[in-house]
């Protein structure tokens, strides 16, 4: 069990007070995904999209990492092989718990991107449609997150890690968004042992060798033990 790949979703940050997407009262029940998490929605109403991400950026700053985030950071420190955390989350709670080897495949709330020149920088607390890119001056700034229909980041690195994984764990994800939901099949093809840790079995639970259910702050520290 040398190389471990861990995929995390909104469920690992739920007990830190950050909303999930598809649970009762989740983000996609308050906002229409098409309006706030697609390039078309941003083109139609950038003010609404900035409002959505400004609110989440404020929530994220007020939130604290929980025992599950700390347990994964400890596993990274103490495990003799590689432990890669691939997160679908745009919050920085893994890093704030001390995790080092983290890939944000859906981008980061803390980063801004210029739609005109591709420049990236640390996002201000509040972003607005009139903001100018610090590099090219264009009024084309957006949150540096991956919307539906956009290519997730660092997919080749993720594919390479899955191809050499001995253990793949998915934590707090509903298994409904691709390509992340397909990682378990890639890891299994590479011969990895696969385990799902989730509040309840996900849509893809059947694809895992092992399913552990319960709140992340309880089952993740116990699993890391
Ligand atoms: C792409 C970033 C191609 C922004 C997000 C039909 C079939 C297959 C695929 C598609 C299709 N139609 C469209 C697609 C593609 C689409 C997709 O998969 N759509 C789905 C909805 C069907 N995917 C894409 O568009 C992706 N891009 O395919 O590009 C391409 C190819 C070439 C060139 C260009 C493009 C991009 C997807 C990324 C979208 N961005 N977010 C933002 O955050 O605002 S997705 C969004 O959903 C978040 O990233 C989130 O992480 C992700 C997944 O959600 P989860 O994390 O799983 O959260 P969820 O609420 O769903 O579940 C929470 C889980 O936690 C639950 O299971 C719950 O039980 C559990 N839980 C709750 N509390 C706890 C807990 N567990 C433990 N403890 C607790 N306390």
From TrEMBL:
<protein>
    <recommendedName>
        <fullName>NAD-dependent protein deacylase</fullName>
        <ecNumber>2.3.1.286</ecNumber>
    </recommendedName>
</protein>
<dbReference type="GO" id="GO:0036055">
    <property type="term" value="F:protein-succinyllysine desuccinylase activity"/>
</dbReference>
<keyword id="KW-0862">Zinc</keyword>
<dbReference type="InterPro" id="IPR029035">
    <property type="entry name" value="DHS-like_NAD/FAD-binding_dom"/>
</dbReference>
<dbReference type="GO" id="GO:0005737">
    <property type="term" value="C:cytoplasm"/>
</dbReference>
<keyword id="KW-0808">Transferase</keyword>
<dbReference type="GO" id="GO:0036054">
    <property type="term" value="F:protein-malonyllysine demalonylase activity"/>
</dbReference>
<feature type="binding site">
    <location>
        <position position="216"/>
    </location>
    <ligand>
        <name>NAD(+)</name>
    </ligand>
</feature>
<dbReference type="Pfam" id="PF02146">
    <property type="entry name" value="SIR2"/>
</dbReference>
<comment type="similarity">
    <text>Belongs to the sirtuin family. Class III subfamily.</text>
</comment>
<dbReference type="InterPro" id="IPR050134">
    <property type="entry name" value="NAD-dep_sirtuin_deacylases"/>
</dbReference>
<keyword id="KW-0520">NAD</keyword>
<feature type="binding site">
    <location>
        <begin position="88"/>
        <end position="91"/>
    </location>
    <ligand>
        <name>NAD(+)</name>
    </ligand>
</feature>
<keyword id="KW-0963">Cytoplasm</keyword>
<feature type="binding site">
    <location>
        <begin position="198"/>
        <end position="200"/>
    </location>
    <ligand>
        <name>NAD(+)</name>
    </ligand>
</feature>
<comment type="function">
    <text>NAD-dependent lysine deacetylase and desuccinylase that specifically removes acetyl and succinyl groups on target proteins. Modulates the activities of several proteins which are inactive in their acylated form.</text>
</comment>
<feature type="domain" description="Deacetylase sirtuin-type">
    <location>
        <begin position="1"/>
        <end position="225"/>
    </location>
</feature>
<feature type="binding site">
    <location>
        <begin position="172"/>
        <end position="174"/>
    </location>
    <ligand>
        <name>NAD(+)</name>
    </ligand>
</feature>
<dbReference type="InterPro" id="IPR026591">
    <property type="entry name" value="Sirtuin_cat_small_dom_sf"/>
</dbReference>
<feature type="binding site">
    <location>
        <position position="53"/>
    </location>
    <ligand>
        <name>substrate</name>
    </ligand>
</feature>
<keyword id="KW-0479">Metal-binding</keyword>
<feature type="binding site">
    <location>
        <position position="117"/>
    </location>
    <ligand>
        <name>Zn(2+)</name>
    </ligand>
</feature>
<dbReference type="GO" id="GO:0017136">
    <property type="term" value="F:histone deacetylase activity, NAD-dependent"/>
</dbReference>
<dbReference type="InterPro" id="IPR003000">
    <property type="entry name" value="Sirtuin"/>
</dbReference>
<feature type="binding site">
    <location>
        <position position="133"/>
    </location>
    <ligand>
        <name>Zn(2+)</name>
    </ligand>
</feature>
<dbReference type="GO" id="GO:0070403">
    <property type="term" value="F:NAD+ binding"/>
</dbReference>
<feature type="binding site">
    <location>
        <position position="136"/>
    </location>
    <ligand>
        <name>Zn(2+)</name>
    </ligand>
</feature>
<feature type="binding site">
    <location>
        <position position="56"/>
    </location>
    <ligand>
        <name>substrate</name>
    </ligand>
</feature>
<feature type="binding site">
    <location>
        <begin position="9"/>
        <end position="28"/>
    </location>
    <ligand>
        <name>NAD(+)</name>
    </ligand>
</feature>
<dbReference type="InterPro" id="IPR026590">
    <property type="entry name" value="Ssirtuin_cat_dom"/>
</dbReference>
<dbReference type="InterPro" id="IPR027546">
    <property type="entry name" value="Sirtuin_class_III"/>
</dbReference>
<feature type="binding site">
    <location>
        <position position="114"/>
    </location>
    <ligand>
        <name>Zn(2+)</name>
    </ligand>
</feature>
<feature type="active site" description="Proton acceptor">
    <location>
        <position position="106"/>
    </location>
</feature>
<dbReference type="GO" id="GO:0008270">
    <property type="term" value="F:zinc ion binding"/>
</dbReference>
């Amino acid at each position: 069990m040398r190389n471990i790949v861990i995929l995390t979703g909104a469920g690992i940050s739920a007990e830190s007070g950050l909303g999930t997407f598809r649970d009762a009262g989740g983000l996609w029940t308050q906002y229409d995904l098409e309006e706030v998490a697609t390039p078309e929605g941003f083109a139609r109403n950038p003010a609404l999209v900035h409002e959505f991400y400004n609110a989440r950026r404020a929530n994220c700053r007020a939130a604290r990492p929980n025992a599950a985030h700390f347990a994964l950071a400890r596993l990274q420190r103490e495990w003799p092989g590689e432990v890669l955390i691939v997160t679908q989350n745009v919050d920085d709670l893994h890093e704030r718990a001390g995790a080092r080897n983290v890939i944000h495949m859906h981008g980061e709330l803390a980063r801004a991107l210029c739609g005109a020149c591709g420049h990236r920088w640390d996002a201000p607390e509040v972003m607005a449609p009139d903001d100018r890119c610090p590099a090219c001056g264009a009024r084309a700034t957006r949150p540096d997150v991956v919307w539906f229909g956009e290519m997730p980041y660092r997919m080749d690195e993720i594919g390479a890690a899955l191809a050499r994984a001995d253990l793949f764990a998915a934590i707090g994800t509903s298994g409904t968004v691709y390509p992340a939901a397909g990682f378990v099949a890639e890891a299994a093809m590479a011969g990895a042992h696969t385990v799902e840790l989730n509040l309840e079995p996900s849509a893809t639970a059947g694809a895992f060798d092992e399913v552990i259910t319960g709140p992340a702050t309880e089952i993740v520290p116990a699993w890391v033990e």
